[in-house]
Write a structure and sequence with these properties.
Elongation Factor Tu (Ef-tu), domain 3, about 20% helix, alpha+beta, about 40% strand, 1 helix
């Protein structure tokens, strides 16, 4: 599945995610997904999170810069896991770090 949309302002936990607002309807179960993001003719390995907010959140691995108000294309590859509620912000941050490391291993192997 491919999505295209504008990066809008969001709230964060210290991880720079691009919150994508699409004009096209899409159906995607809530969860954390492996993805590819395309920005200015360059491909980035990414994680996509669906279900926290109504927009999809995308974390680009190894990207530095500001994507606010930019157009981003995202290709969803496969689901990594379901979303889980955490009792603390620290627990959530730790799980996000684990997701990032798992995604790096996946992309190294594929």
């Amino acid at each position: 599945m491919k999505l295209v949309g504008q990066v809008v302002k969001g709230e964060g936990l210290g991880f720079k995610t691009a919150n994508i607002k699409t004009s096209q309807p899409f159906k995607l179960e809530s969860g954390v997904y492996l993805a590819k993001a395309f920005y200015k003719n360059k491909e980035y390995k990414a994680l996509a999170i669906m279900g926290v907010r109504k927009d999809i959140e995308v974390y680009l691995l190894d990207f530095e810069g500001d994507l606010y108000n930019q157009i981003l294309e995202v290709e969803i590859l496969e689901k990594m896991r379901d979303l889980v509620q955490y009792n603390s912000e620290e627990g959530l941050k730790q799980k996000i770090e684990e997701d990032i490391e798992e995604a790096r291993r996946y992309f190294e192997d594929h």
